[in-house]
Design goal:
Shape: rod-shaped
Strand content: under 5%
Number of helices: 1
Order of helices and strands: H
Number of strands: 0
Low-confidence stretches: none
Largest sheet: none
């Protein structure tokens, strides 16, 4: 009888430990998901910032190229 009570106590302890371990895993999974979401948000902001800077620089380069083209055309007209 003592062995049966001891066996039931061990099984009960193991089952409680298993449930507690599962909650920790769920908490860890939730923390991982939150971290991934935060990293994704930051990455999106960085990409948007870089794209905006690239667009500004592209516009600046395009304006300089148009200005240089106009000057070359004016010089060609003046040389005729």
């Amino acid at each position: 009888m003592k062995k049966l009570v001891l066996l039931l106590a061990v099984v009960f302890s193991v089952s409680l430990f298993s449930c507690t371990g599962n909650q920790t895993a769920n908490t860890t999974d939730a923390a991982v998901e939150e971290t991934q979401e935060a990293v994704q948000e930051v990455a999106d902001q960085v990409v948007d910032s870089i794209q905006a800077e690239a667009a500004e620089k592209a516009d600046s380069v395009q304006a300089a190229a148009d200005e240089a083209k106009d000057k070359v055309e004016e010089a060609a007209e003046a040389a005729k």
